[in-house]
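REQUEST
  id: r-88c1
  op: predict_structure
  target: Por secretion system C-terminal sorting domain-containing protein
  payload:
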Amino acid sequence: MKTLISSLVIAATVAMSSASFAQNNHTFSVSKETKDVNFEVKSIVEGKIDVTVMKNKGESLSIKLTDTNGNILATKSLDKKDPASRVRFNLNELPNGVYHVVITEGTFKETKEVILDTQNVDSYRTITMG
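RESPONSE
  id: r-88c1
  status: 200
  body:
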């Protein structure tokens, strides 16, 4: 049995104001030779994606938000000495569509799809004249 050299725990909380996701609450895990990855996505409010990363020192990591064409919309890098960080991506200004949160550490890469489907809110006023 191989010894785990490092472990990486990622908890991502996806926040969407009036938004829906293809799969709202789910967890998936990936094991590599030296990595254990847990990535959890939950929808809450405020139109933001919060990605919380806890890792061992000595590992550099990158978190990116991309569109379906692979264009990088936002990125955050953690250097080798950062043991933990929280990254917030604001989706309020983005159009509806499919986006990806991409976690990269060396040759390890994990992607999570996020579907932004904001509902339009119609407002109206009633005026009564007497």
